[in-house]
Amino acid sequence: MKRGNLAVVPALVLCLVCVVGAILSGSEPGRMTLELAWSGPSRERWFGSGEAGVNLFALVTHATLRALLLAVTVSAFGFLFGTLVGAIAGIRGGAAERWSLRVCDLVQSFPTFLLALAVLSAVREPSRVHIGVVFCVSVWAPFARIALAQARTLRDAQFVEAATSLGATRVRVLLRHVVPNLLGPVAVQAGTSAAGVVLGETALGFVGLGPADGVSLGALLEQGTLAMLRAPHVLAVGAFAVAAVSGSLQLASEGLRRMVRAGL
Predict the structure, then answer these.
(1) Domains along the chain?
(2) What are the tens digits of pLDDT across the range 97-132?
(3) What pTM did the predictor assign?
């Protein structure tokens, strides 16, 4: 198996484990069993229990799976929209390039986390849809900037000039020659953005602005910090889950870049 394919394996294994774990643990990850509150790992509960006797195995598998779905969805939007915007601006050049860079500067100059705090604090019951929309506002800008830089180089390449001289339309040149050659560098940003979404959602959940259902890695970390000395296993489970998700997504982005460069 190629090294690029191997880099994607951790993320796939994590997704599979979370799906199987969510199925085995049932559809109520927030179910309370008060007599088991803060109890340690056991044969019945592999990861132990958290606040109010919540099964940590059920909570962490459901929270990780939902965080992954949110991250992949937001990153996919940023990849598609940002790559298209950047490629078009890079090929056209001139005013289109300048204005695209100014918009990217404007979007990236305002911290996404502060924007999320402002928006979600005004929502009565925040959900992952609200979180996803907020992240989509800014996630496309890094993709557009990378795609624009690559397209700016490719528009002077000999094969692009040859295709243009043979009568190829600008759209055909863009889709057939430019976009396929810039996907490798842009693909690295996909994993970075996805990992950033996971960390952002975790931070929002930690400060109490996560999904209203409480099934998030941030809520799990909040439980762990409140009972750090009483039940250290809760914080350990949450921290390991966040590190596993973020690390596997970063590895997957590098593997995706290699696969794209090798032509899959």
Answers:
(1) 3-26+45-261 (1.10.3720.10)
(2) 999 999 999 998 888 888 898 888 888 888 899 999
(3) 0.88
